[in-house]
Amino acid sequence: MTDNRRAVFLDHSSLDLGDLDLGALHDSFSPLHLHAHSSPEQVAERLQGAQVAISNKVAINAQALAACPELRLILVTATGTNNIDLEAARRQGITVSNCQGYGTPSVAQHTLMLLLNLATRVADYQQAVAAGRWQQASQFCLLDFPIMELAGKTLGLLGHGELGGAVARLAEAFGMRVVLGQIPGRPLRADRLPLDELLPQVDALTLHCPLNEHTRNLIGARELALLKPGALVVNTARGGLIDEQALADALRSGHLGGAATDVLSVEPPVNGNPLLEADIPRLIVTPHNAWGSREARQRIVGQLVENARAFFNGEPLRVVN
């Protein structure tokens, strides 16, 4: 390797928990500097003299880019690139490549896990056992909370790309009927139902679409009211897709049978969030970890290596700008 391949990973601890093989990544650069975390104030300083920046969620803004004239490539260890000022990178001639499709099995199984937990009321039954209610029961079992069978139910999907398709296949394996919804801002398709037609007929709704100006608060109070009483809602996409206060209200009112989300509008939720209030019933919140299996994170490493080698060979991959 020549010395014009100096790379800096600004937040490697968000990807590697000490369980990944980073050998090929180190071999792709000369050298690779790893930082567990980087504050906004540290970004420009740490990228000085680097040709390659690697970031998961650390923001690289126009000011930082301007301070790093040697930067040639930004590798994002995720699909979303909203933490990078793409226009500034374009003006500066910096290539930005992301990772794609790495977490499909992990996120798809997490989506079904959340749906199954809601349908079977696992959290409620666990709490009942912990409180001693089974031990005090007059018969062999507790059936205090209604259990829904997924077989024969209708699942509405908003987003039917690689991930949505994987969720659809798993749902169908449980005997569910899958219907697809039209995403605002996209060309109309005959096999996609408008939201107002989709929502009243589904027993469960899962979201797998990107967050943009067309989809922010896609599911608000009006849309939640269109769902059947007792319907389930699962979001493993982006927190801003659902109006969080409206979702909390719909759960408190008893209209929904339950909801689960792996994402919030601000992460981490250091200033609180309507969905973190203690009095919301039938809600599961997981900490944006649906993507985080070891296998998925190792696939990201593999794609980083591919993206770096392709760039240095003059044929960049997964370019987003």
UniProtKB/TrEMBL annotation:
<dbReference type="InterPro" id="IPR036291">
    <property type="entry name" value="NAD(P)-bd_dom_sf"/>
</dbReference>
<dbReference type="Pfam" id="PF00389">
    <property type="entry name" value="2-Hacid_dh"/>
</dbReference>
<dbReference type="InterPro" id="IPR050418">
    <property type="entry name" value="D-iso_2-hydroxyacid_DH_PdxB"/>
</dbReference>
<keyword id="KW-0520">NAD</keyword>
<protein>
    <submittedName>
        <fullName>2-hydroxyacid dehydrogenase</fullName>
    </submittedName>
</protein>
<dbReference type="InterPro" id="IPR006139">
    <property type="entry name" value="D-isomer_2_OHA_DH_cat_dom"/>
</dbReference>
<dbReference type="InterPro" id="IPR029753">
    <property type="entry name" value="D-isomer_DH_CS"/>
</dbReference>
<comment type="similarity">
    <text>Belongs to the D-isomer specific 2-hydroxyacid dehydrogenase family.</text>
</comment>
<feature type="domain" description="D-isomer specific 2-hydroxyacid dehydrogenase catalytic">
    <location>
        <begin position="31"/>
        <end position="318"/>
    </location>
</feature>
<dbReference type="Pfam" id="PF02826">
    <property type="entry name" value="2-Hacid_dh_C"/>
</dbReference>
<dbReference type="InterPro" id="IPR006140">
    <property type="entry name" value="D-isomer_DH_NAD-bd"/>
</dbReference>
<feature type="domain" description="D-isomer specific 2-hydroxyacid dehydrogenase NAD-binding">
    <location>
        <begin position="112"/>
        <end position="290"/>
    </location>
</feature>
<keyword id="KW-0560">Oxidoreductase</keyword>
